[in-house]
Amino acid sequence: FHLATPRIQETILAQTAVNDIWGIGRQSSKKLNQRGIYTALELQQSSPDRMRKLLGLPGLRTVMELRGQPCVKLEAAPPARKSVVSSRSFRYPVSELSGLQEAISCYVAIGARKLRNQGLAASNIHVFLSTSRFARDKPYFSDSRLMVLPMATSSTAALLKTAMQGLKKLYKPGYAFKKAGIMLTGLSSGTIRQQNLFYSTDDSRDTALMTALDRINDKWGNDTLRYGSSGLHRDWNTKQSRKSPAYTTRWTELPVVQSRMPHAGKHTASSLSP
Description:
By secondary structure, this protein is of the alpha+beta class. Helices cover 35% and strands 22% of the residues.
């Protein structure tokens, strides 16, 4: 629409139902309808104080936006990330250190790849473990360890080494752990990194290795090439029986459309697939 004049704006707003406004949900629409507000134009002309009491601050912002007063600033670029988190709940409780090492290794690989994709490096890695808070018949445990890296890095190998050190300090036998994960913090540019006076290394070979690793996995699929410490069978992995289909990224998960077409006075069903 070309909304250059107030008259055209009012026409469009009068034809727009309040439940079609972004941010106005079913319950908010019901509250507005009960007070005689059915269109975007009626909402625009409502009292801001009244809408704040009824819908809270988000509702007030919606009214002001409809009046042409921006309440959310546009960003030229997304803000820099402050952390990268990779964690999952296990399919079943894990008590052995070897199983936890596989899981943490897998999560580190995921986090490190996120860093490289965004051109970042991490200075710290947090490792955390927890048992189920709902298992009342078993002792509860939840703790984390912060490990500071000698230099900021996005290398899976360097992060794995440090994460395993943190896991060994954190692990306690006799507990059935239900969740584990890592968090990478102290993020900075992956190309401009502060050097360490007491720790020097030539990471050019490591950088080339990570580049080759990412290219292979990008071409042939995730985990085509991976570190052995992340395990082969991963029996602890999250159960995904109720996972939403990946309609936009996997051909095999595209929905099948059933169509009915007239044929000789009758309707026949045919299955359409890509």
